Amino acid sequence: MTNQLTLVWTEAGVRQTHTIKNGQPSKNPGTVRIGRDPAKCDIVLSHPSVSGLHVEIFFNQELQEYVVRNLRESNPPLVDGKILARGEAKLTSGSHIHLGQVQIDVVNVTEVAVTAPQTVLLFGPPAPGNSGPTGPSKYGLQCPKCSRISPYAHLSAGCPWCGTSLAAAVSVMLSP
């Protein structure tokens, strides 16, 4: 099982959506940081009322819940209408986080079943009507970020869709 949290906010009149999954790659492993500084943050907001490094969100394995942690003493966030001067606050579906003048809404917190790819092993000739996988590439890699599957034959430096390194990707069997 993997847990995920979906955030929605509006910036410069454009609605933004970002889904956080526990264990996803980030600039600070184990957390997703939010603020104005693109060198330090995974989610970058441009509004001047947002601090360079404002908060981080992570999945607390022990409590099995998402939490937000304040990273600023002088510009604390509001979480569900309460100032989070220091420490952490639990996030649930419907939670609101105010970073300066930007409101971020938690629209969904879910537990998603991760199914292991099924592998069919064929011993001897295939049974009639079951030809098994065909073609030059029977296996591929599933991107750890966008979950798309790339056949080995089409790989170069990383995921062709999002550019993420496939060093930690799961090997999966491709459908014929």
Task: Write out key terms for the chains shown.
about 180 residues, mainly beta, six-stranded antiparallel sheet, five-stranded mixed sheet, 14 strands, globular
Describe the structure.
With 176 residues, the chain is an all-beta fold. The chain is 0% helix and 40% strand. It has strands spanning 2-11, 14-21, 32-35, 43-44, 55-60, 65-70, 78-79, 82-83, 88-91, 96-99, 102-112, 139-142, 149-151, 170-173. The strands form 3 sheets. The chain has a 6-stranded antiparallel sheet with strand order 2-1-11-10-7-8, with no helix packed on it. Strand 12 (139-142) and strand 13 (149-151) form a beta hairpin. It is globular and about 55 Å long.
The rough form would be described as globular
Q: Give the helix tally.
A: 0
Listing every helix as H and every strand as E from the N terminus to the C terminus, the arrangement reads EEEEEEEEEEEEEE
What is the spatial order of strands in the main beta sheet? 2-1-11-10-7-8
Sheet with the most strands? 6 strands, antiparallel
Q: Radius of gyration, rounded?
A: 21 Å
- Provide the residue-averaged pLDDT: 80
Number of strand elements: 14
- Helix/strand-derived category reads mainly beta
Percent of residues in helices comes to: under 10%
Distance between the termini: 27 Å
